[in-house]
Design a protein that fits this description.
112 residues, alpha+beta, six-stranded antiparallel β-sheet, 6 strands, 20% helix, 26% strand, globular
Length: 112
């Protein structure tokens, strides 16, 4: 594979994935991306980030492995699943709720 092709592939990969380092600490407020593929049946009109108007709290963050354990602040339960940093974003109340913009980053390219 040529160097030019490698650079082109790297740029394409970086556009699709989060490659810049993200560091989480205990107590950060985050939301989680629904990882349901847009080609599956149902759930297409739901917001891609959960919880919709709230947040989870980071209980434990492993910055070396890029994995976080989350806690639900409404009832204090620790979520059973550990989430990779790729599907986590920091929660911001100021974030404008633009479902179309969020869905663009969530949906995969469709062939027509």
């Amino acid at each position: 594979m040529s160097k030019k092709k490698q650079k082109k592939d790297k740029r394409a990969y970086d556009r699709r994935h989060r490659t810049k380092g993200m560091r989480l600490s205990i107590g950060d407020k985050v939301q989680v991306l629904r990882t349901k593929d847009s080609s599956r049946k149902g759930g297409k009109m739901k917001l891609p980030w959960i919880p919709a108007n709230s947040y989870y709290i980071v209980q434990h963050a492993d910055n070396a492995k890029h994995i976080a354990t989350l806690k639900d602040p409404s009832n204090g339960d620790i979520l059973a699943r550990k989430y990779p940093f790729e599907v986590i974003r920091l929660f911001s109340r100021k974030r404008k709720r633009n479902m179309k913009a969020d869905n663009r980053s969530f949906k995969k390219n469709k062939k027509i």
